[in-house]
Sequence to fold (235 residues):
Amino acid sequence: MAVLSFFAGLILGSFFNVVIYRLPRGLSIVKPGSACTHCGHRLTAAELIPLFSFARQRGKCRVCGGRISWRYPVVELLTGLGCALDAGTSSDWAEFVVGVSFFSFLLVLALIDLEHQVLPNKLTVLGLGCGLLFSLFGWTLPFPRSLLGALVGFGLVFVIVVISRGGMGMGDAKLLALIGAFLGWKAVFYVLFWASVLGALGGLLYLYITKQDRKTPIPFGPSLAAAAMVLYFFL
Ligand SMILES: [Zn+2]
Fold:
């Protein structure tokens, strides 16, 4: 099951790459088919094979030689590994669906935030809806705890945004609401704490490597997503 999930995850990951590229740019996710971002060359079936095509073409477009972003194979691999891990740790299919959904929303949101400093409402609200719905189905927490988790997650960041004016935004509030809907209110505090630690360390490292000044905005979404994933899968 884990091996099968890994390969299914690779395909899911290549779809996520489309979402990560197109959603923040306001493009349609379903059409047209995938194309080179440099020359517009429409990808053939062989060029659409996850990981393999990137390796074979050495990260370049076969037609124009333009660089293909590192993000494509990384997202495919991470989604494959995430699905395999989820298959290995889930005791039934409902838990598997919950795990894959949670992981997928977090991964796609983190990567969009990293590149565009935005967490699209379409995804945060959809993810929040899934979290509440799974709870109603009886797949996760009892519904009152899921709802409370969402409210605490949103409220906590909302207060921080109002007080601190900067650093975090309303997108982060909706992301933490999503996390709360899946994991409950106690997890919200845990995730916020560790995301802050991770964000501070990651921020310093980022400024050191890129040699930018301290005013550079650093997205908080990836830290929230990483802390929530560790909590869900490993603790
Ligand atoms: Zn090209």
